[in-house]
Design goal:
By secondary structure, this protein is an all-alpha fold. The chain has nine helices and no strands. The relative contact order is 0.10.
Amino acid sequence: MSGAEQVRQQTARSAGGRIDIPELYATWWRPMIRLAVLLVDDVQSAEDVVQDAFVALHRRQDALKNPDAAVGYLRVCVLNLSRTVLRRRQVSRRHLKVAEPEQTAGADAPLLLSEEHRQALAAVRRLPRRQREVLILRYWSGLSEQEIANTLGISTGSVKSNASRAMAGLRSTLGELA
């Protein structure tokens, strides 16, 4: 666990050792939104996912034996709820054959995201789910291999192999575009 994360977790506890949900929300809402956006590729769905994760934490705060585990609990909730959103999208597309409404980019989108970034994000989105999750948690959320393993419920060796395969896949995909 990084020093910055330890400090953030300390601010999430009240004096009585219980979880300080308002402080946790103020500190972790934005990083959790970023994580969810990368996983579900939709800001509105990401906000719903994070809100649902905080509601779940609020409901289960008495069951958490260690208040320091609240951030990890939130991260796992965001990951699992994001998977649920993606599964529901797949089911609705497959069975209802209803196209999602087209998303129009904002007028400032070209300024915010260069072509190279768009290609890199598109390549990440084409990776298998586990590889994509490992890369997002490692490079966008800045988690260690152990933290990723705990979040995904896999071994650190699996984290390393998925990261290696994902990077090889990205090199291959992005090399073809060059």
